[in-house]
Amino acid sequence: MALRIGLVGKKVGMTQVYADDGERIPVTVVQAGPCYVVGIRTVDKDGYSALIIGFDEKPQRLANRAELGQYKDIGVKPMRVLREFRLDAADVAKYTVGQVLKPSEVFEAKLPVDVVGTSKGKGFQGVIKKHHMKGMKATHGTHEYFRHGGSIGCRLTPQRVHKGKRMAGQMGTETKTVQNLQLFQILDEENCLLIRGSIPGAANDYVIVTKAATRVEYKEKGKAKEEVRSKNPLKASKKAAAGR
To answer: SS3 for 69?
Structure first.
């Protein structure tokens, strides 16, 4: 299991910012704070070490007595969302219950992050929209089968439909993880993260942002070294005409 700290946030929406070289970059704004440390798991007491992070305050009328007593002891208002992040015991010892986590204390700008969210719900959909099937031809002789899924049987053996068969059904509302997105900018005063590209979920949905599990450096696609120019004058003139 990857031991990585992260923050719980809320997807605000998408916008665009400009890099130092003038490039226009689409980013997703994530409200990642204020996040509070509302609990600590230790090896001696719980068998593992972890931090419990709370996000998004809720009214006291929505909390039961147990929650009110718990949050009163740590001096924090009741939270809507709680998530555990497993860490080493040495890293857990650096934090205290009731501590406020700033985005700049957890992440560094320009580095890759992983985002976990719930995808948008699409309702009950057919095989063409859900599985990108081709469908039947819309010519003479085809009736009522333009968007059907087709045959699903297996004849005499095994006389059943195989599990996992691509068929019509509910689409969306699934937990999705997008890896290795660039954390383009951190707005520490607003507790906002500007993440390059799109992330799962609709506006105001909760997401979890953690340090990337597979990369320590963000590599932008299409920014490789310039290719060697051909010595053929005909090819070179074609590239020059195309602006390359």
So the answer is: helix
Give how many domains the chain has, as a whole number: 2
Per the omega criterion (within 30 degrees of 0), is the bond before 34 cis?
yes
For position 229, what pLDDT does the model report?
Answer: 60
Dihedral pair phi/psi, residue 77, rounded to 5°: -75, 155
Determine how many CB atoms are found less than 10 A away from the CB of residue 105.
Answer: 12
The residue type of 20 is D
Segment 161-177, tens digit of pLDDT: 999 999 999 999 999 99
Assess whether pLDDT exceeds 90 at residue 210.
yes
Q: Which amino acid is at 86?
A: R
For the stretch 173-199, pLDDT in tens is 999 999 999 999 999 889 999 999 999
In a domain, 1, yes or no: no
192 shares its domain with 141: no
Question: Are residue 68 and residue 185 in the same domain, yes or no?
Answer: yes
Domain that holds residue 151: 122-171
Is the Cβ–Cβ distance between 81 and 97 less than 8 Å? no
Verify that 99 and 210 share a domain, yes or no: yes
- Confidence band (pLDDT; 50, 70, 90) for 223? low
Number of helices (H) and strands (E) in the chain: give both, helices first. 6, 12
| 151 and 46 together in one domain | no
More confident: 18 or 228:
18
Torsion-angle region of 66 (φ positive above 0: left; ψ -120 to 50: alpha; else: beta): alpha
Selected residue with higher pLDDT from 210 and 33: 210
SS3 65: helix
